[in-house]
Every structure is written in structure tokens, then in C-alpha cells.
């Protein structure tokens, strides 16, 4: 297996054989041993962007990867960049293990982000659009409109756009408007006087958020193919109709990204009411980034920067639409299934295919599902059957992201209406889902569900369901725990594990965790689960240290979305120094530096980016050939291990342990959709060696579990 250089040239060596070297003291906490969190985050976004160039993905999915990069960058600026700016604004500068100050990080973010975004628009303009043209999919520019198309656009503008657009001339009585976060806007240069004799020279036109950013031209005004026109093109073409009698000297797109993080005090009396108030302000937080069309005159650019209190570092001049996320609509506007991934039917485990009651199957053997390859339906059926089963007395569930109209929610409401004791612990502060979760809480309460908002100061991120059923004169507990959210849509896009069990000890543990979440009292003794903020952090480090005690016989495989916790990284460094073979499959942020002699030469880090978003968290410990495996809702981040309610649950069934190890090994074998982190911080994409077959972990699992 060879490496294709992306950031820097080089090769990744296998774990070397032990050699005798003079003992040297290595400062494990030295800042050069760690990568910056935000810059590592940017690198993940770049790996997503590179999928747009991977011709093994269908063309429209490559376009979607380009759009996902935009969406990821939006959130990065709204939360991460905004957070750094807030630290500087209020004099609360924080330094991570890498030792970089916020000002240094912001400067490097600006340099790297400008480079990545320039490359994104090059990929769109020079690669994706030409390839779509070859497939007869056209973005029809104003200069290329035929008379029939121009007439259709004129009519569309008058019927659909003009009635809802609200141009704002700038003068002493019309100050610069307060623009909504990430909205599409136009700055217009005007010449002449209006009906009142005003001569302002400038106006702002906010594009109506209710209108689509892409519109499909009807076939009868085209010569075949799929023909799309941008809303921005239509507004540009008819801007003069917004300012009758004025001459339009120029019309240019721009878009402002604002701070969208929410800040809530810990001593709130009413979390829901406080959150509703904060949500109103999210749309108008401080500006953090200005995107402007690259043909906009400099004097207008400088005017906008002054209006938003931004500098050249925050300016991104782009050659194309200022919001590429909206191009995701293309796959829904064109009828080209040949240019997207073929559909597949998630499989069902054999043990539940013919069972009338899922409880019967779970009693015989625990069930492990890997979504999206295996269906999310058993999780929904678990609740549906519980709602209707007269033997079920109580249901308790945590909800982080689910959607107000989900089948999960309907099942909980049905159970409450049937007189069962139903409790939902809803995390209102699930980022960007806060409004939906407030609505969800109201719906559940109206149906009779007892709704609890978790613990103020600790996000409830654990994924748990507890069902209490009367069987043969005694109460039996059934549990579901998972690495992902109770969201059927996410379960088709994210790779996550679901675990269904009737183990009495697990049932007792989950019951105690719900007691802690809904009631008051000291932390209860838990038998099998590790749970944050109480035991997970400590036990994870203890188990790493236990493997370190085995020396070269030790084995650790972790699968995370992110690794930033300093204590976990220190423990992994100690284990590496002891000779433990360590493989980390980390989709996104990794602050640990692998491959450093005397420190981390036994640690390898890889990131898998493919059709599905890698989201599962798995902790594998070799334990002297008696493997112990945990799945978890928690990444190795301080926020997860210390500041949230999280759960790691053991998978003890030998067959399931073997299956989990096979899944992890598939990730470690991937030689085409995996990227290996180098000691210098760059990532190199794996490529098959000459004569070696391609091995993509996601495609292998898709074939193994669905036959597709």
C-alpha cells in the first residue's frame, strides 16, 4: 500500500521492530507534541473537499461533498472562529496543549481557510461544472440566456421574486440594515435621484430566504438537458426593476457569517425560556466572516467591512455563488439517478427477521446493529412494540437529535396515551437543533410524556432507552444504547452502532443513570457502564494504562470522531513508550502527534472519509488476548468526558466482540478512502500499491452486510 501525497510528500512506515536505544527523557506535555485543535478541524474539512475530486464517487455526490465542505466551514466560523474572537474580545484567552494563543490561531486559520476556499471554487469552476456540462447538466449564465429563457426569467421575477423582495436604499433615514446570519444579499451602486429627490448612490437587497437559490428552467425554453439558473442571476438581471428610474452601476453578492453559539448561565431558573430568548439573538450575533463576489469594487468591499467591524483577514472574495451549500439542491432538481449512489436496503439480523416480538429475540442474545448498513427499524420497532405491549409498564429515553416528526417520537406519544409511564430526557442545547427540540418537548408534554431537560451545565449526550416489562410475575428491563442519535435520517447517512440487551446488570445501570438525570442525589454505584462526568474519563485512562503494563503484548484500537483530551493523549503516549501497538481511527480532529521517536512511534492515526459519515465510537483493549470492547456516545474530548452526560457500554458476547474487531480491522485495511496522519501534521491519502486491490472499508461493510 502506497501513500498519495496531498499536503506533503512522504511515506508512512509500519510500526518498527523494537531496537535498543539509549534512554532519553521525553517531556510528554511539551507543546510541540500536540497539534492545534482548530487547525486539525480545518484539515478534516479539507479531506471532505478532496472527495469532490475522487472519481470513484458519482458526479452529483462529488458536488455534494463540495457543498458539505461549505456547510462545515460555515459552522467552523460560526462556532470555532467566533469562540476565539470572543476570547480576545473579553480578555479570556485560553491556550491548549499546543501553546498557540487565539490571535496566532486566528491568523493561521485565515491563511489556511483562504487557501482551501480558493481551491474549492477552482474545483467547482474547473472540474465539477465542466464535467456536469458533459453530462448535459447546465448552469445557464445570464450572458447565455436565449430570448425565450430571458422572457421566462422575466416572468418568474415578476411573479415570484418582485412581490417578496425588499430593497433598502441607504440614506440618513435608512441606515444599513441588520442582516440575518448567512443570508444572501446584494450591494447595489445607483446613479440618479428617486421620487423624493434622494441621491444615495447605494442600496442593499436581501434575497428572500423563502425563495430557492436554484431554479430549473422548463424544458420548452431549452434545447434539451437539465438547465438550472441561479436566483442571484435573476436578481442581477432585473435589479433595475427594484429601483425605477435609477441607473444600476453595479450589483454584487455578499454574505455575512455571524457568531451563532449560544451562551447560557448555569444558574437558570427556566432553561427552556432562557433558550428561547437566546435563539432570537443567534441570527444577529457579531460578524466573523464576509464573503463577497470577486468582481465587487474595492470601495464597496471596504464599506461592507467597516459596517460589520471586520478586517481584510475576515474577507473571502469568491469566484461564484457566495453560498455553495445551496447547490445541494441540484440532485433534487435533475433526474439523473445514474450520477448518484445507487440505493440499497439495510439488512436485518437473522435473529429478528421472523420474531413477532423483538423482546423474545433480545432475551436469547444481545443484538448489535451497524447503521446504515443494518436497518434502524429494529430500534423503532423496539419502541413501537413497547408502546402497544400491555406487559410494558414504563419507557425512559434520552433525546439529543431526533426530529419532531420522527417515528421514535410518535411511539413515545402513543405509549403515553396508552397509560404507560413515559419519561423523555431532552437535551435542549443540541447545537442548531434547539428550536426543534423545544417544539419536540411541547408535543411530548401535550401527549402525557414527562419531559426533563437533563442537568444544567452538562449536556445530556448519552443515547439510552430503558423499557420495563412484566414477565412471569417479575419486572424485566430491556435497554438500547447507541453511539448515534435517535434520528432515522442520520441513521441512513452516519455509521453508528446500536446495542439491544436484556442483561440485568446493564438494565440496572441504565435505570440508575435515569434516576440521576431525572431526580436528585449522590452518584449511584454502576456495575458495567462507564459514565461521564463521573467514571468514564478515569476508567478510560486506567484501561490505557493497563495495556501499557502489558508492554509489547498490549493492543489498543480506538475509533473516535475527535481526540483532544490532554489526559487521554498523555496516557496513549505512555502506552506507546511501553511498546503497546496503538491504532487510532479518528475521523476529524486529532491533536496527538504520531510517529515521534521515543514518544509515539507505536501510534498510527488514520481518518476515513467516504460515502457515509464515520460517527461510531469504539474502544478496543487487547487485555492479554482477552479483548474488552466498549461502544460509546463519547469522543475523547474534554467536553465529552468531563462536561457532558455520556455512556460507554461493554459488548461482552464473544460473537459480537469478534464482529466488532472485524469491523475495526476493515477500517485499518482501507487503502483508498483513508488518510494517514504524519508526524509533521500533514495527512497523506492511502492508495493501493501496484498490483494491490482497492479495499474501501465502507464498501466492504456495505457488501458484507447488505450484498450491495
UniProtKB/TrEMBL annotation:
GO MF annotation, one: ATP binding
Domain Polyphosphate kinase N-terminal per the UniProt entry, residue ranges: 34-140
Binding site for Mg(2+): 401, 431
Entries under InterPro entries matching the protein: PP_kinase, PP_kinase_C_1, PP_kinase_middle, PP_kinase_middle_dom_sf, PPK_C_dom2, PPK_N_dom, PPK_N_dom_sf
Reported cofactor(s): Mg(2+)
Domain Polyphosphate kinase middle: 149-329
Biological role: Catalyzes the reversible transfer of the terminal phosphate of ATP to form a long-chain polyphosphate (polyP).
Family (UniProt): Belongs to the polyphosphate kinase 1 (PPK1) family.
UniProt name for this protein: Polyphosphate kinase
Organism, scientific name: Marinobacter daqiaonensis
Phylogenetic classification of the source organism: Bacteria, Pseudomonadati, Pseudomonadota, Gammaproteobacteria, Pseudomonadales
Gene name per UniProt: ppk
Amino acid at each position: 500500500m502506497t501513500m498519495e501525497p496531498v499536503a506533503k510528500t512522504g511515506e508512512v512506515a509500519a510500526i518498527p521492530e523494537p531496537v535498543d536505544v539509549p534512554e532519553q527523557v521525553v517531556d510528554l506535555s511539551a507543546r510541540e507534541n500536540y497539534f492545534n485543535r482548530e487547525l486539525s478541524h480545518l484539515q478534516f474539512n479539507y479531506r471532505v473537499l478532496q472527495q469532490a475530486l475522487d472519481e470513484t464517487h458519482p458526479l452529483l455526490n462529488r458536488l455534494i461533498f463540495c457543498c458539505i465542505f461549505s456547510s462545515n466551514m460555515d459552522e467552523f466560523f460560526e462556532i470555532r472562529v467566533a469562540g476565539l474572537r470572543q476570547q480576545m474580545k473579553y480578555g479570556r484567552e485560553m491556550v491548549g496543549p499546543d501553546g498557540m494563543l487565539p490571535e496566532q490561531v486566528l491568523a493561521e486559520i485565515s491563511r489556511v481557510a483562504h487557501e482551501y476556499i480558493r481551491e474549492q471554487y477552482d474545483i467547482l469552476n474547473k472540474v465539477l461544472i465542466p464535467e456536469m456540462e458533459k453530462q448535459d447538466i447546465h448552469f445557464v449564465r445570464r450572458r447565455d440566456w436565449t430570448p425565450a429563457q430571458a422572457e421566462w426569467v422575466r416572468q418568474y421575477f415578476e411573479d415570484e421574486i418582485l412581490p417578496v423582495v425588499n430593497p433598502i436604499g441607504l440614506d440618513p433615514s435608512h441606515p444599513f440594515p441588520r442582516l440575518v446570519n448567512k443570508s444572501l444579499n446584494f450591494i447595489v451602486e445607483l446613479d440618479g435621484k428617486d421620487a423624493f429627490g434622494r441621491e444615495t448612490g447605494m442600496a442593499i437587497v436581501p434575497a428572500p430566504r423563502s425563495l430557492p437559490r436554484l431554479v430549473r428552467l422548463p424544458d420548452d425554453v431549452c434545447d434539451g438537458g437539465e438547465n438550472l439558473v441561479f436566483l442571484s442571476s435573476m436578481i442581477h438581471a432585473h435589479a433595475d426593476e427594484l429601483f425605477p428610474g435609477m441607473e444600476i452601476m453595479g450589483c454584487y453578492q455578499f454574505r455575512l457569517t455571524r457568531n451563532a453559539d449560544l451562551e447560557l448561565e448555569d444558574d437558570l431558573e427556566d432553561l427552556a425560556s432562557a433558550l428561547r430568548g437566546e435563539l432570537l439573538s443567534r441570527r444577529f450575533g457579531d460578524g466573523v466572516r464576509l464573503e463577497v463576489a470577486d468582481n465587487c469594487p474595492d470601495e464597496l468591499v471596504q464599506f461592507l467591512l467597516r459596517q460589520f467591524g471586520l478586517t481584510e483577514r475576515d474577507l473571502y472574495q469568491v469566484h461564484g455563488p457566495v453560498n455553495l451549500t445551496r447547490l445541494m439542491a441540484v440532485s433534487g432538481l435533475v433526474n439523473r439517478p445514474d450520477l448518484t449512489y445507487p440505493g440499497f436496503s439495510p439488512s436485518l439480523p437473522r435473529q429478528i427477521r421472523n420474531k413477532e416480538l423483538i423482546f423474545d429475540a433480545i432475551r436469547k442474545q444481545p443484538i448489535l446493529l451497524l447503521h446504515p448498513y443494518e436497518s434502524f427499524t429494529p430500534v423503532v420497532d423496539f419502541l413501537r412494540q413497547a408502546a402497544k405491549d400491555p406487559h410494558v409498564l414504563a419507557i425512559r429515553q434520552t433525546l439529543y437529535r431526533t426530529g419532531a416528526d420522527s417515528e421514535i417520537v410518535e411511539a413515545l406519544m402513543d405509549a403515553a396515551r396508552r397509560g404507560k409511564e413515559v419519561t423523555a430526557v431532552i437535551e435542549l442545547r443540541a447545537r442548531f437543533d434547539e428550536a426543534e427540540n423545544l417544539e419536540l418537548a411541547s408535543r411530548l408534554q401535550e401527549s402525557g410524556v414527562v419531559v426533563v431537560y437533563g442537568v444544567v451545565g452538562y449536556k445530556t449526550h448519552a443515547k439510552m432507552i430503558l423499557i420495563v416489562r412484566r414477565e412471569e410475575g417479575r419486572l424485566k428491563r430491556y435497554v438500547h444504547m447507541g453511539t448515534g442519535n435517535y434520528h432515522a435520517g442520520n441513521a441512513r447517512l452516519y455509521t453508528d452502532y446500536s446495542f439491544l440487551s436484556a442483561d440485568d446488570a446493564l438494565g440496572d445501570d441504565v435505570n440508575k443513570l435515569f434516576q440521576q438525570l431525572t431526580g436528585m442525589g449522590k452518584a449511584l454505584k454502576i456495575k458495567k457502564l462507564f459514565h461521564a462526568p463521573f467514571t468514564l474519563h478515569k476508567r478510560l485512562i486506567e484501561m490505557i494504562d493497563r495495556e501499557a503494563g502489558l508492554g509489547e503484548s498490549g493492543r489498543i484500537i480506538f475509533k473516535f470522531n475527535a481526540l483532544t483530551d490532554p489526559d487521554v493523549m498523555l496516557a496513549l503516549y505512555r502506552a506507546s513508550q511501553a511498546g503497546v501497538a496503538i491504532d487510532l481511527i479518528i475521523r476529524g480532529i486529532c491533536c496527538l502527534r504520531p510517529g515521534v521517536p521515543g514518544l509515539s512511534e507505536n501510534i498510527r492515526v488514520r481518518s476515513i472519509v467516504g460515502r457515509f459519515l464515520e460517527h461510531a465510537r469504539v474502544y478496543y483493549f487487547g487485555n492479554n488476548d482477552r479483548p474488552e470492547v466498549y461502544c460509546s456516545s463519547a469522543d475523547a474530548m474534554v467536553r465529552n468526558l468531563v462536561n457532558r452526560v455520556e455512556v460507554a457500554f461493554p459488548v461482552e458476547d464473544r460473537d459480537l466482540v469478534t464482529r466488532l474487531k472485524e469491523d475495526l480491522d476493515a477500517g485499518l485495511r482501507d487503502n483508498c478512502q483513508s488518510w494517514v496522519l504524519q508526524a509533521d501534521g500533514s495527512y497523506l491519502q492511502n492508495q493501493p500499491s501496484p498490483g494491490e486491490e482497492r479495499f474501501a472499508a465502507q464498501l466492504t461493510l456495505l457488501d458484507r452486510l447488505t450484498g450491495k
